[in-house]
């Protein structure tokens, strides 16, 4: 995997795959609001 992330500036992943943006969990994989019962 080659690609320099412009978010953190690291190589090996893209900004969309950067874990630095994981700050809250708004619009991601498995981020439902109310996944407990209903």
Automatic annotation (TrEMBL):
Please name the InterPro entries in this protein's record: Znf_CCHC, Znf_CCHC_sf
Which GO molecular function annotation, any one, does this entry have? zinc ion binding
Which residue ranges are recorded for the region named Disordered?
19-38
Write the record's keywords in alphabetical order, separated by commas: Metal-binding, Zinc, Zinc-finger
**In the UniProt record, does the keyword Zinc occur?**
yes
Listed name of the protein: CCHC-type domain-containing protein
- The source's superkingdom equals Eukaryota
SUPFAM superfamilies from the UniProt entry: Retrovirus zinc finger-like domains
Gene3D superfamilies assigned? Zinc finger, CCHC-type
Recite the lineage of the species. Answer: Eukaryota, Metazoa, Spiralia, Lophotrochozoa, Platyhelminthes
Domain CCHC-type residue range list: 5-18
> Is Zinc-finger included in the keywords of this UniProt record?
yes
Chain intervals with Gly residues compositional bias: 24-38
Which PROSITE patterns does the UniProt record give? ZF_CCHC (PS50158)
The organism encoding this protein is Schistosoma japonicum (Blood fluke)
Q: Which SMART domains match?
A: ZnF_C2HC
